[in-house]
Amino acid sequence: MKGAKEFWDKSAPRYAKSPVRDEANYQKKLAITQDYFRPDWSVLEFGCGTGSTAIVHAPHVQHIVATDISGNMLDIAARKARAAGVENISFQQGTLDSLELEAQSFDAVLGLNVLHLLDDVDGALSRVHGVLKPEGIFVSSTALVGEIGIVWRVLISTLQLLGLAPYVNRLGKQALVSKLAAAGFSLEYEWQPAKGSVFIVARKSA
């Protein structure tokens, strides 16, 4: 199986052309998130991909730091932001572990379609908690690979062996909820738009 950076660098052009699978659910997630935002907020999005969601959210906050492991993804994201006339997004290549992010410096952190791709979810949630201000929010949309059928899990494993799929963990909803609580978050909103996925807004305690 390829390393994450190599996989996503190679996948970036195809990923950029992929349509949103469920536009109605995507728009609902955007709306829910924006209901929390304030004009003076500083936001971090890790695993931002080609920047589509950050660009949509940018007019609703003061500044977004959008990060990804893939330089090719970020190149596409920066071009899209320039084309859209968006100037309040800073794109940075790296991971939660590798980037120098100041403690308690963000009002919100977004981890969208990324937690299931991490081998250390507990560490990521601890890092997110650390960079959030007191009462800041963490918004996540996560594929629950542990809750999909055996046929799909076998298919994913086969694709990984062929280098056609990235690493994915087998996180389930209850395990994710427990990990969030252990990291110091309380759930404010939970929605399962489809089997095998969950959208969560969690808040850091004051």
UniProtKB/TrEMBL annotation:
One of its GO terms (molecular function) is methyltransferase activity. InterPro entries: Methyltransf_25 (IPR041698), SAM-dependent_MTases_sf (IPR029063). Transmembrane segments: none annotated. Pfam families: Methyltransf_25. This is Class I SAM-dependent methyltransferase. The keyword Oxidoreductase does not apply. Residues 43-136 form the Methyltransferase domain. It is an enzyme of class 2 (transferase). Its EC number is 2.1.-.-. One of its GO terms (biological process) is methylation. Keywords: Methyltransferase, Transferase. It comes from the Bacteria. CDD domains: AdoMet_MTases.
